[in-house]
Design goal:
The structure is a homodimer.
Chain A (H helix, E strand, L loop, with lengths): L20 H8 L3 E5 L2 E4 L1 H20 L3 E2 L5 E3 H6 L2 H5 L4 E4 L5 E4 L4 H11 L8 E10 L14 E11 L2 H21 L5 E4 L10 E7 L5 E5 L6 E3 L5 E2 L12 E4 L6 H8 L7 E8 L2 E8 L6 H8 L4 E3 L2 H6 L16 E4 L9 E4 L5 E6 L9 E2 L10 E2 L7 E15 L1 H6 L2 E3 L5 E3 L1 E8 H11 L1 E2 L2 E2 L10 E5 L5 H16 L4 E4 L6 H11 L3 E5 L1 H5 L2 E6 L6 E4 L3 H9 L3
Parallel strand pairs in A: 3-7, 16-18, 18-21, 29-30, 29-31
Antiparallel strand pairs in A: 1-2, 4-6, 5-6, 7-8, 8-26, 9-10, 10-23, 11-12, 11-23, 13-22, 14-20, 15-16, 15-17, 19-20, 23-26, 24-25, 27-28, 31-32, 32-33
Helix pairs in contact in A: 1-11, 2-6, 2-11
Chain lengths: 567, 567
């Protein structure tokens, strides 16, 4: 490809809207162009790279024995109502009506459709296991699109679905997919952590995320430096510091004028946060829920949402709190009966707690559960934090930020039972098919690969997913010998199966060309110039090498090949 | 691929809903599964085939010097309002709102977005010409989805857009794309007619369709058997038989009780249809339009719609006709002033016409234009029919039905002027970029290839787009020698780069396997059986050969290769 023809313009300056390195570099290198919030066009360089990512994913999926198909994005909303997921996805799913007023969904995922397909094609245990996958455009109406290709509303996803005759089969399919994912990320130069994860609106039992650790990631991963335990903070369970259980003292009202936060309250009363219980108010599908947790801990909203089986969970608004008769800042479960009360087991770790007295500027000392208050539900809703201890080996846990690049789920039989996908087992008994699902964000892999592989000059494309192998720079194209040698080299490289981006511009200075080559970041840069040609040589430099080397014109193809070989 | 694992089930009987051969065969062979009206999942066999079609299209587009990119399906509706095409597409375009209530379109085509991309990346005539293309999922809310993959609401399309510095450049890009399209159809074994076409809601000047002639097609192509002229009936212009112009006679009222049709009227009065003028009432964007055309001709609604510059055109309803004070069955333009009157020039070919008298059961003889009635607009709105004469060589034209598989358009500068995509010419003057656009329905190519290539036993896949090259049938897999020989052959063929579908089923009879092989229609069938193995041979048969041949086991790879070579 000649740059003079390439529909791409590099930018000299950082675009102000870009928050992450990959977003900034993809805009500057002319890889993507925004069409609407969270909706991008992939310009030719990005698209070549994405096609290579797709091919790597395809090869690994095929090698794991799965079959590619293509399912549609437009689906009858009815199908989503059958499984209850129209409500579960809510505003995150784009919905529309066709010209006859029939409700349609723009599918964010394909469990419903793929289950129906398998239902029509699988009859007996002899037809199982089956893994189906597709590379397809997904639509999700993200509330906060961000970071270029990381959180977008339309994106290419590889989604796979496994169908097995039971849990042992599912375990095997799950392991095969996990291994395929590790292979994909390795080939794309993305070092991932495989972490236990919450399964969210997809539903199901076990679930793991593959995350690229990076400061700009939007997920928090809790890891154990000793035993290797890793889990998304949404899912992680660790052991928080135990508090001694004291002899219960009588409840005692204290005046706490103006003490609205745990920190100020603790300072005023001279107690630790772990000696208090805090109240947090949520709205679960619109209903106010009163949550009690020990003061040094935070609520894990995902665990809470799962415990409440609700579709929407958010902090309650001030007027919702007030209209439920609750006093924000001085609330406790003592005497509260008109709202649902949920508590974390940490309310029993310690005692004689400071709690609100449900009137302004007043608290109680020495509150004890269940002597002084009750809960409708006591269940683990505590957020595991760095410093808590690993549940497996008691080592203090650490936290890192990460970007999710893949997610796998054991679904079990929810979809097959709901949609009627059964098989006959070897005894002739009808059984629901056991399912798993497996997603990789193809466009997010590109962003993650750039996030991981760049320097202050630009992108450092991993060779397997670089849009081209070689960036051929011709200096002084007006010089006929240069033009001739460059075009000849260009043709010879392509003939040898090496993909070349050729900077043939006549109106760009050498510095501009070199900067663009560093910014776009192909693995190998070749420079044809009058000076080099006088030595019958071409300058060759790997994108990450400090030193350039001179290569005889006739040896260039071999030299490039050697550089591109994986080490 | 082993059929025992393949997610596909063939059907023995024709599905009742299938109207065309390709639809019927694609359902029976398990290629597609309907998800909603006009919305299909492509099962693994179809998807392999479609990916090969995509690759052929990609190779021809790349060879023609165009660059692949990927644009999004979700687009701000605002962009479509800027060009006026939100109204032009109307209900044919899916529209929705995001969670913040912002209107979005599911793009049926991409002129708006691609023009904005080029606008941001092209500055000077030196950056032109440029052709961009994508393989992308398109959405169109067709009023009447039909014929399997022929008229659907979600489909894969290759759409390309050319950008040139003027009309001469556009002509060259247009020719290059036309040639690329011919190459694609040849490689997919689809014999096409390239016909002049109307450019519809896409807009623009010249336009051509590529059509596969077939009785089940929904388009009519008018062709000249002598000079090769070909045009979609919507666009075709031919010469209808001239009528002699007689001496005008005085207008004369006649009673025509019960004569509501042209045919009954002609019989009653003893005149030819060409001696009458007929009145047809349309509603153009809701306004009643009175159309007059010679009685032996029909109105070409596309020409009429273009002449009226309206977005929606349909026959007027009875109450609309009545409320405009018109008398259906006895209407003429004589004395009509309260509605818009459009006439075809055929009102002046002939004379002393029989026309309606605008009262029930009454007509006039000897109506003449413009003596007796006037029109607001006289323009060619006649439908060219077989038997009319070729405008170029006066040969009687013929008509065939066809399925459109490609469509190319000269757009001119409408989009670049509307959206501000200009370039600096060699004089430093700002000029709008001249555009063309080019579409191929990838999934429709598959349907057309099957429509063209089948027999009463099933599909006859053209080798370049067959899901697999070879259908390997093992008879009696319980026989260890058969199983071993078949698996060995399967492995050797794949190792030689030959793609094999392996019927390894233990529970299917030989007849079922042979029927499935014919139905799926791969180019070569190989049969491993106890009897064949006794001769150390395998039976080989091309899908269209009457005769099978025995091939020594060791020679099979070579023999298959020879059969797959293009003749």
């Amino acid at each position: 490809m000649r740059i003079s023809r390439l529909v791409t313009r590099t930018l000299r300056d950082d675009p102000p809207e870009a928050e992450t390195a990959s977003h900034r570099l993809m805009l500057r290198a002319g890889l993507i162009q925004q069409v609407a919030a969270g909706i991008y066009a992939y310009l030719p360089l990005a698209w070549r790279s994405l096609r290579k990512v797709e091919q790597i994913v395809r090869e690994e999926m095929d090698a794991a024995g799965s079959q590619e198909l293509r399912m549609p994005a437009l689906q009858p909303m009815e199908l989503w109502e059958q499984t209850g997921r129209a409500a579960a996805f809510g505003d995150n799913m784009f919905s529309l009506e066709d010209r006859r007023g029939r409700p349609l969904a723009l599918a964010p995922t394909h469990e419903e459709v793929v289950t129906n397909i398998v239902k029509g094609n699988v009859q007996s245990y002899r037809d199982l296991p089956v893994i189906l996958y597709q590379m397809q455009t997904k639509f999700r109406d993200e509330p906060r699109p961000r970071a270029g290709l990381v959180r977008v509303r339309e994106f290419t996803m590889k989604d796979a679905y496994s169908f097995d005759a039971g849990d042992a089969g599912l375990d095997a399919s799950y392991q095969a997919m996990a291994q395929a994912y590790r292979n994909v990320f390795r080939r794309c130069s993305i070092p991932v952590v495989m972490a236990e994860a919450d399964s969210g609106a997809i539903g199901g039992k076990d679930s793991h995320e593959f995350l690229l650790p990076t400061d700009t990631g939007e997920d928090t991963v809790i890891t154990c430096p000793s035993c290797g335990y890793a889990a998304n903070a949404e899912k992680a369970s660790g052991v928080y510091p135990d508090q001694p259980i004291p002899e219960p003292l009588p409840l005692e009202e204290v005046s706490t004028p103006g003490m609205k936060t745990i920190a100020s309250l603790c300072e005023f009363l001279g107690v630790d946060e772990a000696q208090t219980l805090k109240a947090v108010f949520y709205a679960a599908d619109g209903e106010v829920v009163f949550v009690t947790i020990r003061g040094d801990l935070d609520v894990n909203e995902i665990k809470l949402k799962n415990a409440l089986h609700c579709n929407e969970l958010r902090l309650a608004e001030d007027e919702e709190i007030a209209s439920a008769g609750l006093v924000a800042g001085s609330a406790s479960a003592i005497g509260i009966t008109n709202v649902r009360r949920v508590a974390d087991p940490s309310i029993s770790s310690g005692g004689n707690f400071v709690v609100g007295a449900n009137k302004n500027d007043t608290h109680y000392r020495n509150a004890n559960y269940p002597r002084d208050f009750v809960a409708d539900l006591v269940t683990d809703i505590a957020l595991t934090k760095p410093g808590h201890l690993c549940a497996q080996c008691s080592t203090p846990l650490t936290a890192t930020r990460g970007v999710e690049v893949g997610h796998i789920f054991k679904l079990g039989t929810f979809f097959s039972e709901t949609l009627g996908a059964y098989f006959l087992d070897s005894e002739g008994e009808q059984q629901p098919i056991t399912m798993g699902c497996y997603g990789i964000g193809v466009s997010r892999i590109l962003a993650a690969a750039i996030e991981q592989n760049h320097d202050d000059r630009g992108i450092i494309f991993p060779a397997p997913i670089a849009p081209y192998d070689v960036h051929l720079v011709a200096l002084n194209m007006a010089d006929e010998a240069v033009a001739e040698a460059a075009v000849d080299l260009y043709d010879r490289l392509w003939a040898a199966g090496i993909e070349v981006l050729f900077d043939d511009r006549t109106d760009a200075a050498a510095g501009v060309k070199f900067n663009d080559a560093d910014l776009i970041g192909l693995p190998v840069r070749l420079v044809v110039s009058p000076r080099n040609l006088r030595q019958s040589a071409v300058e060759m430099r790997g994108r990450t090498s400090e030193e350039a080397e001179m290569v005889a014109v006739d040896d260039v193809v071999e030299a490039v090949r050697g550089t591109l070989q994986p080490a």
